[in-house]
Structures are given as C-alpha cells and as structure tokens.
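If I may wish for something, please walk me through the protein I am sending here so I can picture the backbone:
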Amino acid sequence: MQVLADKVAIVTGASSGIGRAMALLFAQEGASVVVNARQQAGLDAVVAQIEKVGGRAIAVAGNVRDEAVAKSLVATAVSRFGGLDVAFNNAGALGELGSVVDMPLGNWREVLDVNLTGAFLAAKYQVPAMLERGGGSLIFTSTFVGYTVGMPGMTAYAASKAGLIGLTQVIAAEFGAQRIRANAILPGGTDTPMGRSFANTPETIAFVESLHALKRMARPEEIAHSVLYLASDASSFTTGTAMLVDGGVSISRT
C-alpha cells in the first residue's frame, strides 16, 4: 500500500542528496511531486526517473530565497495536480566557513536568506494551500549543528538552521487546530554533495564518521524514510518537533 496515494508534495533542493532521495521516495509512495532546485538539468533528470517508473512529477527551477519561486511552486502544485498536502522544505546553503569575527556580512545574509527566509516564504504560500485541502504536513531540514552541538566555523549555517526550529514550532502552534502539522528533521552527517564539501578528504570523512555513535554517515535514503514518516498519516499526532536522525552524533562521546 502506498502511504501517500493521491497526495501532492513539494520538494525543494530536489536535484541531489536528501532532496532527490525524498522526491523519488514520495513518488514511489504514490505522491505527485513538484520538484525544485536552482538548476533545471538536475531537476529534469529527477522528473525523468520518476516518470520512468510511472510516477508523476514536474520541475520548477529557481532560488527559494525568491518569493516568486515560493509562490510558483504552490501554484504549480495546485494547477497541475489539484492541491498541496505535503511540503519538504529542504533546500539549503552551507556558506563560507569561518569564525564569527571573520564572517563577511554578505555571507551571513546569503545563508540566512536561503535557509531561513526561504523556509518562511515557502510556508507563507504552502499553508493556505494546505488549508484548502483540510490540512497538511510541512517538514523543514534543520540540523544538529547549533541545536545539540556547536561546530566552529559554522556561524551562519548553525544560526539559520536553529531558526528553522522556531519557525516550525510557531507554525505548529498557529495552525494545529486546522490540521496543519509542522516538523523539523535534524540529520547527522550524510553522504551528499553538501556533506562532501565539508568532509572532502579521507581523513575528514573518517573524523566525521567517528563522531557518530553508529560510526558512519547516513545515506540520503535513510533520512528520506524518516521524512516520509513525518509526511504520512503515521505521524498524525506529531507536530512541532525537532526530530533527530543523526546516527547518535548528539549523544556520542566515544
């Protein structure tokens, strides 16, 4: 049985990594999917893969920091597939790494615009569309960085991702009575292009793996299955949470 049969979902950051794995899994589980990233070519490949196995998907390229893109994603979901039930707001930017005293203001603003303002703009248009359907589920990709662990050099990234948890909680509180759920997923180290931009040598990879209780990094598909839980009716009484899917990095001291 497909757990998202007849549902419509938006996935941002869908051309690679966790977003790509999530778009494929949503489609596999019966959802029609609107996929977003900045580059059209990567999105077209995802759409082609979904359609090859009989799924339904459409690509909308653009930067999530632009309000017109957030509006267009929802409008596309409604016009092409009839509404919106699930949104995985996953697009994000790591930005330049560096100490808080050395952080260029432009980098700070860029990272917050993509990671936090982009999520706010997404919710601004997604929530009304979900209300039209009688409810829905929003999921935001946060991180353990800045929540359970402070990692040097990640000033803007940590602040923006921690802000997503506050946004999640407010949406959950404001719209819970109208059957809107909002949750944040907090992955640990994951084998994605963004993850590899940080863990980019055998020594760094080994170090990052050693931080986790499971002594390895996640595959994107593993994170996607946790997101699927939050998207589905299996989590019908789960809202306002910061859900750690971090391989034990937050509790490991070994």
In short: Residues 105-132 form the longest helix (28 residues). Residues 8-188+221-245 form a domain with the Rossmann fold fold (CATH 3.40.50.720). The radius of gyration is 17 Å.
